[in-house]
Structures are given as C-alpha cells and as structure tokens.
Amino acid sequence: MSTAVRRYVPALVVLVALAVIAGALTMVKGTRPATSTAQGKKSAATLIRQVAITTAIRACPPGTDGSQDRVVLYASSSGSGGSAALGPLPQNGVKASTTRPSTATAEGQLSLLNVPATGDTAHQQGSVVTATGAMAQGVEAEVANSSGMASVRCGEPGSDVWFVGPGQQDGAGRIQLDLLNVDSIAATVNISVITDAGAVQSGSNTGITVPPHQLVTQSLAAQANGASVAAIEVRTTAGRVAADVSVSSSHGSASWLPAATTPATRLVIPGVPPSGTAASLFLVVPGGTDAKVNVVALTSQGRLQPFGSQSVDLPGQSASDVQLTPLGGNAAALLLTSNVPVTAAVLIPNSTSAANATGTTGTTTTTTSTSLGNFTAATPVIDQQAVIAGNVTGSGLTAEVALSAPGAAARVRLTEIAEGGQPATPQTLTIQPGRTLVAQLKAPRRGVPFTIVLTPLAGSGPVYAARIESQSQGGIASIVPAATALTTVGLPPVRDSYGAIAP
After folding, report:
1. Nearest-angstrom CA–CA distance, 73 and 105
2. Sequential DSSP letters for 127-175
3. How far is the CA of 220 from the CAs of 225, 233, 264, 476, in angstroms?
4. Torsion-angle region of residue 435: left (phi > 0), alpha (psi -120 to 50) or beta?
5. 178 closest CA partner among 92, 101, 117
6. How many CA atoms lie within 13 A of 78 on its CB side?
7. Which helix (H) or strand (E) segment is 17 a member of?
8. Is 164 exposed, middle or buried (0-12, 13-18, 19+ CB in 10 A)?
9. Contact at 8 Å (CB) between 87 and 100?
10. Most-buried pick from 282, 365, 385, 397 (CB within 10 A)?
11. With contact defined as beta carbons under 8 Å apart, do 402 and 269 qualify?
12. Residue 279 DSSP label
C-alpha cells in the first residue's frame, strides 16, 4: 500500500463509522419528523430526571473553643435509612486520632457530635462528615460551641473558593487558612491574594500539597501586612479541598470569614444587622478592568442607597474597604451590581465573643473577649431549600433570620426543629419585592438547640437569607449565611454525539 493511500485510511474509517452510527440512529428513531427547536428544548427539559442524593461529604475546620467544640448535623430527608459519621482530619504529618467516630441519630433530627479528641495539643485537627443514603439528602453540618450555636459551615470540597476580609491595617494580625482534603488522592493548591495595593506576589502560595485525609494550615498575615483588606482565592490544579479562613487580632479571639460567592456582576450579601458602629464593606475586583459598583440596601422599609447615586469605583486587581452607615433598625441585605465581576463581604464590628455553654441543658454563661467582629458575605440564591443547623435562644441570646427578595416577591416556609426531632408548626413568610423580612426564631423546646429549614414555595421569587444571633448586652454573637442544602440533583438526558470517534 502506498504512503498516499495509507494517509487517507484513518479518515475513511471515520467516515464509515459515522455512516454506520447515523444509520443506526435512523433505525432507532424511525421515520418520525424532526421536532421544532422549541419542542426539542421543551422535551429536553422534561427528560431531566431528579435523582436523590445518596452520598455527601463535609469538611469542618478546627474550632476555636478547644475541648468545647461540637459539630451540629442535620439531614432534612423525609426518607429512611443511611448513616452519618464524624471522623478526624489530622494536621499534615500528625497521626490520626484513634477515637471512634461520632455518629448521627437519624434523618430529620438534629445531632450534636463531639469533635474527635486529639492528645497532641500542639497541632490542630479538622473533621470530616460522611453521610450516605437518606442522611445525605439536605444535609448540613456546622462547627459550633458546646451549646450548639454554629459559627461556621462545614464546607463542601471543591476546586475554587473565595474569601474577603480585613488585612493587617484593619486589625487582622493573624490570618489562618485551613485546607482540608477528604479524598484519597493528594490535592495541589494555588493561593491568590489581592489587597488594596494590588495582587500579592509570593512563591509560597503556589503548588501547596495537601495529602489525602489531612489538614494543612497556612498563615497569610504577612501577605496582608499594611493592607486594610485582603481577598483570598483558593484554587486547586489537582484534586479538591475544602477551605476556611479565620482572622483575629494578635491577642484576640478568632472570627470566621464565610466563603464568598464566585465573582459576578450581581451579588447579594444577606444578614447585615443594625450596628451602632459603622460596618465595613470589603470589595475585590479580580480582573484587570476597573469596576463601578452600585450598592443598594434592601431594608424592611424598601430600597436604600447608602452611598446616594454615586458608585464605588475600584481599579482592576485591587480590593477596597468602604464604611457603611447604619441601615436602619432591622437587619438588611446589600444588592451589588457592577460592570465587571466582583465579590464582597461585610464586617460588623463587635467586642464580645459568642456565649459558651457550661452544660448540655442549655444553661449558658457569657464571656467577653476581644474579636474583630462577625462577617457575612455574598451568597448564591437559595435553591430547593436551605438549612442552618445550629441555633440557640435564651440565657441572653436571641436568634432571628433575615430573608431578602431583591426581585419579585418571595414566599418561604420556615420550619424549626429541636434536638430530638420535635418540629414547631411551620410558618409561611412573604417577603415583598426589594425588601428584607426579619423573623424572630424560637426554640421548639426550651433550652435546647434547634435547626431551621427554609423552603422557597412554588412561584416564589429569588430569596437570600442569614441567621443572626444577638446578645442581650449588645453585640452580635454569630452570623451564618444560608446556603442551599440539596436533596436531589437533576440528570440531563443523553444526547446524540460522535465525540467518541477519533482518527
């Protein structure tokens, strides 16, 4: 066979294969006429199957209360079967705890799980929640103190996550990044830091290896030295990780930065409580184009422009700290629109830490320590439902949920479930367009922690929410932005494709 003929043989093979497949598809489809584009789209939509989630993993960072730390866990499935267990994620190079994993009780019930103990006080240890079957549906896990009040969500492993918070100039003498790998393969992580001075160049931020089933901690304080704001992007080039960031003054207690949504041209930051001290809005522009950001507050009375008709102008690849004036007597949300993608968070200054429990009966005592405050961040819209597992009231603490509807009116069912699975009568809440509704929370059983489930109803407009815990002597104890807790995922139909054939 000549060289010229051999050159065309692969192409001929491909053409024959395509002809065979085309004929087979014609036989399967028969001689029915092709549907119109609109009909095809409609058919494709109806073919999407909703399949129940059967496996879920959450990674919890080391808590800040030492032996008092708990993980609160709730699975909102109405099914039966499955299990959930809490195991250790030791620090890199440290032997894992031999303590038996804590296990959850059953779906539809709130569980307070003890964080696996470690005898090595010199090293921190994270935790991993593994849920299967019905326990994986609508699952939520959060790090909490011994009373059951959550301070930060246990994150889902992923490949890209953002945090925005203060730099050293705004009091963050310590910035700790926790990288948690729940998988059986190593992950490789690159960290990008942007401050008000621009992008930070550091060779120590690239190619960080996080071994399987381990925790790696990184200090980022030096990279935010002299900066008033620091934005942190955690991106993997291999594997996946969950990430958490805590900030504190040099001698104060730590505050958690909630993960901020991926940069976009439209953002909502829920759960900005009223404060006697002006809150700080942290903004970051990761791209090279200058940004013009318009800020609207969604209050209980309607829309408010905290900066008037002026936009907040930022150069590309920079971050900024903008002071907010008090937004009224109730919690609000911030709606941000920009010409280029941005992401953002809000700091509510505070001088007191969360209440610490002295027992399991709900009795609490309040201790005071210096902290930077509490944070809320831009979050995605609630899809299907949202769960906030760890909430408490009484003994100087009150809890409320702030729900915001930036577009059309929203209708949400609020269900409160006490530890032990005892639910209160659900409430149906209506949030008017462009407003924030604040609903007071009450434990179904006095003196015990409880979960809230937020379910947007049919026909509801987009809704965002956050739970706020306040202290009677003033100040905010905890803010947890609401995140979607899926019970099902949609599987799209398989489409005709010749992608498997290559010369």
Report:
1. 10
2. EEEEEEGGGGTTEEEEEE-TT--EEEEPBPPBSEEEEEEE-GGGT-SEE
3. 9, 12, 25, 26
4. beta
5. 92
6. 2
7. helix 3-29
8. buried
9. no
10. 282
11. no
12. E
Q: How many residues does the chain have?
A: 503
Residue 357 · residue 363 · CB < 8 Å: yes
Q: How far is CA 26 from the centre of its chain?
A: 47
CB atoms within 10 A of CB 251: 9
Q: Write the DSSP string, 167-236.
A: -GGGT-SEEEEEEEE-SSS-EEEEEEEEETTEEPP-GGGSSEEE-TTEEEEEE-GGGGTT-SEEEEEEEE
367 in Cβ contact with 247 (< 8 Å): no
Cα separation values, 94 from 88, 121, 122, 181, 241, Å: 11, 11, 10, 14, 18
CB neighbour burial string for 127-144, b if at least 16 within 10 angstroms, e if fewer: bbbbbbbbbbbbbbbbbb
From residue 344, alpha-carbon distances to 219, 379, 457, 464 in Å are: 21, 9, 28, 15
4 CB neighbour count, 10 Å cutoff:
7
Q: What is the DSSP letter of 66?
A: G
Please report the DSSP string for 311-355 in residue order: PEEE-SSEEEEEEEPP--SS-EEEEEEEEEEEEEEEEEE-S-PPP
435 with 302: CB under 8 angstroms? yes
Long-range CB contacts (within 8 A, 24+) of 11-14: 11/503, 13/503, 14/501, 14/502, 14/503
- Per-residue tens of pLDDT for the chain, all 503 residues: 444 444 444 444 344 444 434 443 333 333 333 343 444 444 555 567 889 999 999 999 998 766 668 999 999 887 778 899 999 999 987 876 666 678 887 788 899 998 877 666 667 899 999 999 999 999 999 999 989 999 999 999 999 999 999 999 989 999 999 999 999 999 999 999 999 999 998 878 999 999 999 999 999 999 999 999 999 999 999 999 999 999 998 877 899 999 999 999 999 999 999 877 789 999 999 999 999 999 999 999 999 999 988 999 999 999 999 999 888 788 999 999 999 999 999 999 975 444 443 333 344 444 445 789 999 999 999 999 999 999 999 989 999 999 999 999 999 999 999 987 778 999 999 999 999 999 999 999 888 999 999 999 999 999 999 999 999 887 899 999 999 999 998 887 766 555 544 44
Which residues, at least 6 apart from 391, have a Cβ–Cβ distance to it below 8 Å?
148, 149, 150, 399, 441, 443, 449, 450, 451, 452, 467, 469
3-state class (DSSP) for residue 375:
strand
Which element (helix H / strand E) includes 26? helix 3-29
Beta bridge partners of 102: 86
Asked if 348 and 479 touch (Cβ cutoff 8 Å), the reply is yes
